[in-house]
Amino acid sequence: MGEILFHLFIACGLGIFYVEATNINTTRMTDVIGAAGFPKAIILLALVLTLLSLYITFKKYMENYDKGEKQSVHSLNVQFFGIIIAVVAFIIITSFLGFVFSAILLMISIMFILGQKSIKKVFFISLVTSMTFTLVFGKLLHVPLPRGISFIKELSFLIY
Amino acid sequence: MMDTSLFFQAIDLVFTPFNLSMIVGGMLLGVFFGALPGISSSMGIVLMIPFTYYMGIMPSVILLVALYAGSAYGGSITAIMFNTPGTPEAVATTFDGYPMAKKGEAGKALGLAMTASAAGSIFSILVMLMLSPTLSKIALKIQSAEYFALTLLGIACISSVGSKNLIKALITGCIGILIAMIGLDPMSGVSRLTFDKIDLLGGVEFIPVMIGAFAMAEILKQVVDKATSEGFEGSEKISLATIKFKEFMQYKWTVLKSSIIGTAIGILPGTGGSIASIVSYGEAVRSCHNKEDFGSGKPEGIIAPEAANNAAAGGAMIPTLVLGIPGSPTTAIILAALVLQGLQPGPQLMTEQPLMLYAIFFSMLIASIIVFFGGRVAVKAFAAVLKLPYSILASIIVMFSIIGSYAIGNDMYQVWVMLGFGIFGFFMKQYDFSPATLILGLVLGKMMEENFRRQLLLTNGDYNSFVTRPISLVILLFVALVLFYPAIAKLFKKKQK
Amino acid sequence: MKKYLSVAIVGLLGLGLALVGCSDKSSDSSKADQEVYPQRPVELVIPFGEGGASDIFARKFAEMMTKRLPQPIQPVNKKGSGGLKGMIYAAQQNNDGYTILEITPSHVIADAMDKSPAVKLLRDFEPLTRIQSDIYILGVPKNSKFTSFKDLVEYGKTNMVTFAGISPGGLDDMTLTALADATGMKIRFIPYKSGSEVKAAVLGGEVDIYLDKVISAINYIKDGSIRPILVLNNKRIDKIKEFKEVPSSVELGYDVTIGSWRGFVVKKGVPQEIKALLIKTMNEVYNSQEYQKFAELNLVNIREGFLNAESFSVDLEKQYKLFDGIARKVGLK
């Protein structure tokens, strides 16, 4: 079932891209193919293939269904969503808390999500790793890491 | 070409304690930069440029070249251990390198990668010394039509890389090409498929997509799988044993073939290690009898891309030195650094600085020889990291993925891209869509389109020009061979019966 | 044992940092108004990737400015969309003088072509100084059928001339379009991905002509593999012997002298005294021996590049009109 949904998702995505491809400005024609030629051709090719693959998948699904084998949507667990949410939260809070604090929080939450029980270990490792990352990328490699706002911003200038 | 008196002068020049330490230091730095995802070797070199102001021409050339050589090694380390390609060149290494590490043979995988890299590198350096002027003249004959044929050859590798489920592999290949087309049209400069988003105007960066589709997707997959099976404690069965030199020698033909492919592609301006490694991987799969083993940790699958991308790094130095035309973005920056030293790039570089070729030759050679003998042992330290419990390892990999994507454009938008492709990549894996062909399309798509349309623009829309040019025709015939080889082989087998 | 030791060290480190942070903060608030600029590193936004001519120049310039200021000038690469991304990033920062933006003609062209309605160079930024101005030369491969610009124009009146460049709708495209418009030749722009691919295409004879900067062409000219046929300037380049015989565009009666240049701007509304300090420092750097040597090395000292804030501002308006005019004339807009 999940596989069918994924196919439909791809097909929808391709459809949206096709609509966007029709908006390409081709008034300044340079070559015979033009700016929209390749994208349209690729999308149509992909669409045909996706529908073909969908048909095969659907047939297989029905066969299995007739045999009485039930195929559910693949079991996604709490950890799966936990990690995604943690990363999303990280992206959002870095602009306020700056890189170091957000990184520490992210690492703590991922370790908890994955069932690391020793709290001492969790805090220690996240602190050390985040500081190492910050120093290596921010200080040594001059990557301008996000600094956050107000006093956290001031604080960050002391580290990187 | 070989000038013995210069040769010995160069030995005198390079074998001083200071310059040797530059080589070793530069190489180690290069490995470090290469291993960090998002930190490209070009960025590493730019960061070193201020130091070269105070060093004089030869030592700075030696340092930068050793760094360049080192970064080509580093990319494979994170590719194998975390499924996070440190550089685009290392993508193909993840195809078999990571599965092998997952089987518990991280030491072997890293050892193979290092040794193959060094071998590829040494091969291309020797070619550089012997054949530079001839080869760079040939490289100029490779024009848009031939480039198109070459990219087509790379894309044809979808058929071997994704042979398990060809239709699905083709779908992801198309999606990859489509993603590459987002941004400004290379021919007319109009924006395409950008949904009026300014972030998309510059196109989609490869690295966040790769990190997402490989590293992040893998984490999500592990999280789903491990929750039901063994849990998140560290796996005990990781072997740090590396390979013996003798074991390596059985792959000598793969190494040689991949080195030739890598050097040849590296010489061409505007291509580079990523195409070389993919083509070489595709060729390794094509020519092997047990294709099914690829993708599950086959040694040839590590050796082929690694030998090729390091050979390409050496190959890219050839036009840089002889014509002053950099064969890759990184060599372009090395050239820029030389300009800051007061040298002017161009064809006279070699006549004005005759020692340079030899100095570069020796520093790359020494760096490679050190890796060849020392690399297999040193990787043990890296592989040991994999013994950490998965909860810790995963959080470190997530950090790497985030910061590697961020550092590409110093922009959080890249992290969103990474996460998006992480989720997409997870479902791709779940339903047998190949992430490898996605990357293949991504890397080659735009180049294929660009050269195809440029050729038409140059010839006023003459489609025949692709087959009337001899080199282009030969490559296209080879593409046909790659595509239809399985069918032809079957036919022959039937006849023999 | 080792583990606890490291815990202790990290803990102490954190504590120390927090303390320093707190004390710093209290001192900040007490004299917030009379704090002396710059209090912290100043970002110099380079809207291009690492290693290009604009990047190398800006990094060198930042390094020389750092020597003259209490806080470093920190170069930051924000590449993408032909320099647009860096400009948008700079526009999103506060106008407190801690963000400087490097600009090139690409940004004026982006304005003229209306590529980003949300952020406009001329509307949202104020010029500090222009530092460099590059001259374009028109080159042909050594075995080309054209021996002079006149030949080319004659041929181009009836035939299509192919021309290699890197940015469709960008500076090189605009420049040659303007030249073609002035001379009446027909050109076809063939875009390549990078300067080195253009060079390879020219040396391999895939295209007829190309535009290049003096520094990146000079050695090919000395070597004989590329022949310059026109200098896009109001006079010939006398400083370099290879160029003495090459006519300038103005001398042939075509008023096209477009070239690349590099300058610095800040967001509108930066306090006057901060701007004055930055301009003063940039002047000092420009006049320093070290910079002049750098310019000499890169052959960017042929045409006077320096413009102060007022003339730069006037020049930007002029350039905007110029590019706007070209774009309208050839139907790019």
Can you characterise this structure?
The complex is a heterotrimer of chains A (160), B (497) and C (333). Chain A is mainly alpha-helical. Helix content of chain A is 74%, strand content 0%. Chain A has two domains: 2-66; 78-159, no CATH class. Chain A has five helices and no strands. The mean pLDDT of chain A is 87. With 497 residues, chain B is mainly α. Chain B has one domain (4-496). In chain B, strands 1-2 form a two-stranded antiparallel sheet. In chain B, strand 1 and strand 2 form a beta hairpin. Chain B is globular and about 65 Å long. The model of chain B has no long low-confidence stretch (mean pLDDT 84). Chain C has 333 residues and is of the alpha/beta class. In chain C, the strands form two sheets. In chain C, strands 2-1-3-10-4 form a five-stranded mixed beta sheet, with helices on both faces. In chain C, strands 7-6-8-5-9 form a five-stranded mixed beta sheet, with helices on both faces. Chain C is globular, with a radius of gyration of 24 Å. Chains in contact: A-B, A-C, B-C.
State the gist of this model.
The complex is a heterotrimer of chains A (160), B (497) and C (333). Chain A is mainly α.
Total domain count of chain A: 2
Using a beta-carbon cutoff below 8 angstroms, give the protein chain pair with the largest interface and the number of residues from each chain.
A-B, 69 and 62 residues
Estimate the mean pLDDT confidence of chain B.
84
The sequence of SSEs of chain B as H and E is HHHHHHHHHEEHHHHHHHHHHHHHH
Q: Strands of the biggest beta sheet of chain B: in what spatial order?
A: 1-2
Into which percent range does the helicity of residues of chain B fall? over 70%
Low-pLDDT stretches of chain A: none
Percent of residues in beta strands of chain A: under 5%
- In one word, what is the shape of chain A? flat
- Given helix and strand content, the structural type of chain B is mainly alpha
Oligomer status: heterotrimer
Helix share bin of chain A:
over 70%
The biggest sheet of chain A amounts to: none
Radius of gyration of chain B (CA) equals: 22 Å
Number of helices, where a helix is a run of at least 4 consecutive DSSP H or I residues of chain A: 5
- What's the total helix number of chain B? 23
Distance between the termini of chain B: 53 Å
Q: Tell how many strands the DSSP assignment of chain A holds.
A: 0
Helix and strand pattern of chain A: HHHHH
* 3D shape of chain B: globular
Beta-strand level of the residues of chain B, as a percent range? under 5%
